[in-house]
Amino acid sequence: MQLEELYQTIILEHYKEPHNFGEIKNPDIEERGYNESCGDDVKVFVKLINENKIDSINFIGKGCAISQASTSMLTDVLKGKSIEEAIDFIENFKSMMKGEKDFISENDFEELSAMKGVLQFPVRVKCATLAWNTLKNGLIKYQNKQ
Questions:
Q1: How far is 146 from 141, CA to CA, in rounded Å?
Q2: What is the pTM of this model?
Q3: Element (H, E) at 140
Q4: CA distances from 111 to 26, 39, 117 (A)
């Protein structure tokens, strides 16, 4: 199996069976993102521990395989991180998606390397980063209320 096929497999697996799909009752953070150019729609729910650490993160939404798989991966890698760690992680991922940084294929970024192929299709970067931008907006709003 070539690396490209492996990446496609990871994306399809997350799309067909998304992790952490569903609403969270009484979330600390609830934020919706919508991509007008293609119709991708996502709502992210976060429950925090001690007002700073992500205890659980879920989503609902519809859209292309890239947006939904990326959102599923986001929920896996950001659980357990503090708000500050999550924002830093989001910024690193977005920099990789813009081609500003090389993809890291270790630790939390290993599975996210599947998104590297999206760089060949710049118009699809918005799909891959929709949930990440949405969550960052929600985290910042939450911080500003505290």
A1: 9
A2: 0.91
A3: helix 125-145
A4: 30, 25, 12
Q: How far apart are CA 84 and CA 110, in angstroms?
A: 21
Both ends of the chain: CA-CA distance in Å?
49
- Burial class of 22 by CB neighbour count within 10 A (0 to 12, 13 to 18, 19+): exposed
Pairing of strands 53-62, 41-49: antiparallel
What is the count of structural domains for the chain? 1
pLDDT of residue 56: 97
What residues make up the domain containing 96?
Answer: 3-145
> In CATH, what number is assigned to the domain containing residue 115?
3.90.1010.10
71-103 residue pLDDT tens:
999 999 999 999 999 999 999 999 999 989 887
Asked if the model's pLDDT at residue 108 lies above 90, the reply is no
Mean pLDDT score of the chain: 91
Euclidean distance between CA atoms 42 and 75, whole angstroms: 12
Say which DSSP state 47 is in: E
- Note the pLDDT of residue 64: 93
